[in-house]
Amino acid sequence: MAAAVALGTFTACEDVPEPYVNPYDQMQPSEPEVVIEPAGDGTQANPWNVAGLIEACNGLAADAFLKDGADVYVAGLVTETTEVSSQYGNATYYISDDAKASNRFYVYRGKLLDGKSVENESDLQVGDSVVVCGKVKNFKGNTLEFDQGNFLVFHKKGEGGGTPALEAPGTAEAPFTVAQALDYINNKLGSATSPEGYVKGKIVAVGEVDTGSYGNATYTISDDGTDGTTLQIYRGYSLGGAKFKSANEIKAGDVVIVKGKLVNFKGNTPQFTQGSAIYSLNGKTAESGGGDTPAGDVKKVTVAEFNAAAESDNVWYELTGTVKNLKDGDQYGNFDLEDATGSVYVYGLLDKQGGEKKKFQELVAAKGIKNGSKLTIHGTRGSFNDKIEVMNAYFVSIDNSGSGGNDTPSGDAKGDGTLANPFNAIAAINYTSALAADVESDKEVYIKGKISRIANNGTFAQGGTYGNSSFYISEDGAQANEFYVFRTLYLGNVKYTSGTDIKVGDEVIICGKVVNYKGNTPETAANKSYIYSLNGKTSDDGTSGGGGEGGGGDVAETGTNGDFEQWADGVPDNWKTASAAGNATLTQSTTAHSGKFSVQVGGNASGNKRLGYKEMSLAAGTYTVKFYVKALAEGASVNPGFVPVDNGTAGTYKYAGYVDNISTGDWQLVEATLEIPSAGTYCFVVMNQKKSPAIDILIDDFTVTLNGKSVIK
After folding, report:
1. Who is most buried in 29, 204, 371, 488, counting CB within 10 A?
2. 3-state class of 104 per DSSP?
3. Residue 645, domain extent
């Protein structure tokens, strides 16, 4: 209780006397420089000053933590901010004991009071008095710093101090030359970080280009393109601030204007800080269409020729093929394009060159695009995680004559195992046969077919002691190319009851896990599948039900993006709460259980962090929550739950129970039931339990159902 009261005092510090000495008040600009003696003991009651912290770190080994990783408290004055990330909600800055920035200490990616996110540069400024709580380490033996995950327990806005205001180093209309930028850094900047400015130069060399989740590049520029006098651009973004998708987007000799902040890193490396962006590339800006305009003629090629071509954002191709694996309702236009020579993945299709993203459904409505459509598109050759893709693609023409949607000749494998495109029996056989003997699939799949025959005592009426059924399905109901559905449950994933049964000729979609039994019999895993739909009726539409407790109660509201495939502004769609239910730092990860992406949920050593789905109107009932999780370090624990939300305020959290020691190797399925007591507004959450040191986790394929009805998928 005492700690809670003290923390409350810190958060209200602007209205009460300061609990700590304000170092800014002790050092007026007119006073001569003095040596500040170490003080404090690093506790919350008696924080170190910066001199005391530096003294305590004497002899700390490389990458070792002070006090074996225990949290320490340090009071100081913010003398410089080097990075403010609204995307990740943190700031990197220096603190000192005085306004002259002597004996600085590095605070890496810290949060505000009580771990609240940093939203803009005004949240933490030079001259602010702070007390920082967190872990201190000797990073690589050459940088003493607060480790990521630190936060403030005291914060008072200051009167200024630190480095005087600087002019911006160039404008878009009159950018600095490299020579001017270097003079500015060496003679005006000192140890500070500049305001945002513009520098023009010619690329000398390109170092590292990350085309994965970070999407940035490190390269050097000079005024004439030679390596005599250069300026480094450290982990900057591509044209207009977009992420790099190809290493070929920039090259030596390109003329660029870079927008960002300058710094003299460690006093010996003039550079742009991380997060700069190319404002113009060879005279073209993002607004003028740079990067989207085909250079020269568009080359008409087959899919095989396209796949064999080199990656380039400057060479444009025309491809014609059949649309495959297009999901219903896709906003982006992601699908496979197939011709007689092969198949390639189209990463987003625009209605025209340079068109607006997330408008694919409007194009579908206007042109009738569907699986089986014959499309002609233009795009460039790129890749993602070593998978070849058509990038920057836009629509040219369509031919739907003779298109049969998903229809392909009888006997072919069809579908990808999703609800939007279920396996047929042959595809299910192929998928399951590829599994090791007696090993279950790591995910649920959907399989569509007609019941061709019933297994011995396979129906409820014949011997449904266990409330399940066993039967065979095929494409057309014939007894050939059959897949065995073994001990499956009824509609809504419940047991059969009297009055419910199946018969030969019924059309079903099965949802569940499959197993290659003894290595020679592909089938559903016993009691781990159910009939999702029967003759077109599902438990989703209320036209049929399987009995059992809870009936077929209505779902008040449903949601999507449980697979974390859709992101905007660094946040997965629908995974941002208006209340405080979702308080974790979320990052897009390309380590996925299925699809392209999962969500990385940041951990914290001082408090539990929650992944939260947006507020939803829910009916009372028993909800089933399923998701896959993987930890980035040993010892992680998760706990699924929910919280009622009233007028934007989260109430009391209810959890199903901890799942401990989350796997760091294989994806681990977590399943829980949650009882919503009454109709109202709620958030579903997954807690990442606090650990020291903090552990991040990955989550993917999150689903919620109510009596078999989809709530989140």
Report:
1. 488
2. coil
3. 567-712
